[in-house]
Amino acid sequence: MKKILFVASESVPFIKTGGLADVVGSLPKNFNKEEYDCRVILPKYQCMNQKYVGQLEYVTHFYMNLAWRSQYVGVLKTEFEGITYYFIDNEYYFSGSKPYGDVCYDLEKFAFFSRAALSILPLIDFRPDIIHCHDWQTGLIPVFLKDTFAQGQFYQGIKSIMTIHNLKFQGIWDAKTVKDLAGLADYYFTPDKLLHYKDANFLKGGIVYADYVTTVSNTYAEEIKTPFYGETLDGLMRARSNCLFGIVNGIDYDAYNPETDTYIAQNYNIKNFRKEKIKNKRALQQQLGLEQDDRKFMIGLVSRLTSQKGLDLIQCVMDELCSDGVQFIVLGTGEEQYENMFRHYDWKYNNSVSANIYYSEELSHKIYASCDAFLMPSLFEPCGLSQLMSLRYGTVPIVRETGGLKDTVEPYNEYESKGTGFSFANYNAHEMLNTIRYAEHVYYNKKREWNKIIDRGMEADFSWNSSAKQYEELYSRLLGW
Ligand code: ADP
Ligand code: GLC
Q1: Rounded CA separation 457/462 (Å)
Q2: From the CB of 359, is ligand 1 less than 6 Å away?
């Protein structure tokens, strides 16, 4: 039995701010149970889904030294869908209304979390063969493993993998403060280790010290070796390219299933979507106060509202886009500039634009099920899950050809009758607009072709089947057994 430990800052169904939570919450369930015992360690945030708080069982508690501090570490646990989750409890670090906040405070919080995750292992009697770390919040784990923990027999030989879900976020602060809050010696603060220019960088530590580094699509694994996508770590990514692997994400096919989804007005499947899917569109038009018209080309966007997601392109052509019969539905929160931009267009085109500036699992499912097309013109996209959810629900993705979007959406080819969506190459607003117009043209004038695009999209398999196997192969390769 191979023992794998996931350590991450979020996971469905306990706490979610983005796709990381979807991945951590669904991948462990998809490993072969006969061969893998995969468990997960998360922070116990006060803002976690309250539904599960009552189910957490107390395991133990102790005080842990972190640099000059001695901090309380509580350990709780629960089982969900066959996976054991441990929660690290400390009210000083994990209270507040959101999992993340001020950068410096977050660095201390996740330095604590990373050390605590390693420290609890003997107490929960779980010695993993591999610790699989996710994003900068857990970047210090591979470093700690090679540091003081390497002296304990229990930890010797434990391997680590660092998965990059988003290279943009690295956990950077001045070296002196980081030294102090992580309790690491000067030795680690040189340019070949944690030091990055004049600062300390958590993710860099993880990338340098992990045995393997992975990211969430093949294209992104290549892109981050270049200066444009490398976020100043492209040199390091090139240096580690022998140990760098791209494995595309899957989605939870039970949670995202148009046939059984209880959030949506009308269930449907690949056989009957031609007749049934439209009922969702009608219900959503009514719910959001949009014009009741089956024929409007309805475009959806569910996203964190940040510059990563290509919202500048949308802003540039929103008036042109809304000048004909489209309907545009947005669900998201994030930077104020984008929230206000969508609020403005909702006011200006009240009948055809609906801006929903909040977080709602339910509305997100309704949008995936109701819209005709789903727009994702990202500047960069390590993988992207929303386009996979759209494909699953027969909503045609319109994407920019970058990262995981390029790897998962096959562009429509009218000559060969191939493809599952529409895509454009350059980060250019009119290239995006032309692509949307082309999609509209197919939607209005070649309905049979449009429906075949949906057929192919719904048939494509983006469950975890193949990607979980690729992780299993990587684990075997790393362990040599
Ligand atoms: P990222 O991780 O960069 O945010 P992904 O496409 O990988 O992008 O994953 C985003 C996930 O977050 C999807 O499950 C999407 O449905 C969800 N999501 C984003 N914003 C919202 C929102 N406002 N309400 C509900 N779900 C959201
Ligand atoms: C990140 C990326 C997104 C990816 C997700 C899960 O948040 O922005 O592209 O799908 O992580 O891996």
Answers
A1: 10
A2: yes
User: What does the alpha-carbon distance between residue 9 and residue 137 come to, in Å, rounded to a whole number?
Assistant: 7
- Ligand 1 close to Cβ of residue 386 (< 6 A): yes
State the Cα–Cα distance between residues 293 and 282, nearest whole angstrom.
8
Query: In sequence order, what are the residues at sequence separation of 6 or more whose Cβ sits closer than 8 angstroms to the Cβ of residue 89?
Result: 44, 61, 72, 73, 74, 75, 76
Q: What is the pLDDT of residue 311?
A: 98
Distance from C-alpha of 461 to C-alpha of 468, rounded to nearest angstrom:
13
Rounded Cα distance between 423 and 203, Å, is: 31
**Of 264, 276, 263, 280, whose CA–CA distance to 451 is shortest?**
276
Could you tell me which of 163, 179, 170, 152 has the C-alpha nearest to residue 66?
179
Q: Ramachandran region of residue 208, left (φ > 0), alpha (ψ -120 to 50) or beta?
A: alpha
Lining residues, ligand 2, CB within 6 Å: 18-20, 23, 165-166, 216, 249, 381-385, 404
306-310 LR contacts (CB < 8 Å, sep 24+): 306/334, 306/335, 306/338, 307/335, 307/379, 308/166, 308/168, 308/378, 308/379, 308/380, 308/381, 309/376, 309/377, 309/378, 309/379, 310/376, 310/377, 310/378, 310/379, 310/400, 310/427, 310/432
What's the gap in Å between 104 CA and the centre of ligand 2?
A: 23
Q: Are 273 and 394 in contact (CB under 8 A)?
A: yes
Match 């919450």 to its residue by tokens. 25
Q: Give the β-pairing of 199-201 and 172-174.
A: antiparallel
The two structure tokens encoding residue 242: 């022998």
Residue 349 has a CB neighbour count (10 Å cut-off) of 19
Question: Closest-lying ligand to the alpha carbon of 302?
Answer: 1
| Mutation test residue for ligand 2: of 23, 100, 165, the one with most atoms within 8 Å of CB | 165
Tell me what pLDDT residue 134 has.
Answer: 98
Q: Which ligand has the nearest atom to the CA of 300?
A: 1
Q: Ligand 2 centroid vs 22 CA: distance in angstroms?
A: 9
Atom of ligand 1 lying closest to residue 383 CA: 7
- For residue 427 the two structure tokens come to 């980060």
Residue ranges, the chain, pLDDT below 50: none
Identify the pLDDT of residue 148.
86
Q: Is 197 left (phi over 0), alpha (psi -120 to 50) or beta?
A: left
Structure tokens at 260: 């059984």
